[in-house]
Every structure is written in C-alpha cells, then in structure tokens.
C-alpha cells in the first residue's frame, strides 16, 4: 500500500511538472503586434524617379478580433535642367494614405491571418519655377488580406496583398513584405518592401513603439 501511494505521488508530481511546463510554454508564445506607432524613412521608385521622405503608421485593437490601422507617407524630390540659357527647377511631392478597419480571422500560435478594408488617398504636387504649381489628387477604397507571424520574441514578419481603387487611372494591386526585430517588448526595428503595379515600388526602414 505504501509503495502504491509513493508511485501515485510520483505520477502526480510528474503530471504537475508537465502541466507547469505547458503553461510556461504557452505564456512564452509571442503574438503579432497590432498596437503600435511607427516612424519610417521611405524611398519610393516612381517609374525610375527616386523620391525620399518619411512615413507614419499606427494601429490598435478595437476588440480582440477587430483592429484599426493607418499608413501614411510623404515623399518628394527636386531636380533642375537648363532650357537654353534658362535653368528650370522642379519639385515633385507625393502623399499616400490608407485608413482601414480590419478583422483577425485566425489568431493562434504566433500567427494572425487578417482582412481589412477602408479609405485610400493619393496626391501629387508639381512645382516648376517660373510656371507655378499644379496638384492632382484621388481618393477611393482599398481591400487588404495578410498574414502576420511572430517566430519568437525577436522576429516577426508581415506579408500582405492590397487592392486599391482611386479612379480609372489609379487602381492596381500592392504586394508588401515587412520584417520586424524586437529590441524588447516595447520597441522594434522594421524593414519593408512594397511593389505596386508595374512601375512603383518602395522600401522603408523605421522604429516602432508597441503598447
């Protein structure tokens, strides 16, 4: 009887230890971040023209499954050329904004699959010395589907595809890939690449605060 009691106690101890390990492992599983503010440096390749500037992204959970995200950048460049004896300088500035509401259709074991949709806006401004300035802007909608995976405490990757429609001449698809390295739970560094249509792509690097 004593031996059986000792065996039972030993089995109970093993079961308790295994349960503790499972709980600890579950607690260590990091989930992708949807609550953040990022500041980025952008370089946009617009049909061979390099435009440099900045971007701001932020996102937050509305509920456990619903989230909101906003992505904005402002890039530009200046260049000049002689026409006869006259030097003409031109400035080009491009702004883009997406403001979406999303839904996490799957979130488990460090992976989140999501859908989002919302507002899309783009504006281009030309300023040519001696000729004045002119701007063009379009707005419409965008629909996005993506997957965000947290490999461990340090590394996270987001891959997504977006369709945007801002009028007859401004509608296409974007494919984006972003890698993130977490310095700690609150701060990370990011590197991203986006291809939009046949003649537009951009890279971005930045830092993020997670809350």
From TrEMBL:
Keyword S-adenosyl-L-methionine carried by entry: no
Domain Outer membrane protein beta-barrel stretches: 13-178
Range of residues in the leader sequence: 1-26
Pfam family, one: OMP_b-brl
InterPro entries: Beta-barrel_OMP, OMP/PagP_B-barrel
Keywords in alphabetical order: Signal
tRNA processing in keyword set: no
Gene3D superfamilies referenced in this protein's UniProt entry, alphabetically: 2.40.160.20
Protein name: Opacity protein and related surface antigens
Organism for this UniProt entry: Pseudidiomarina woesei
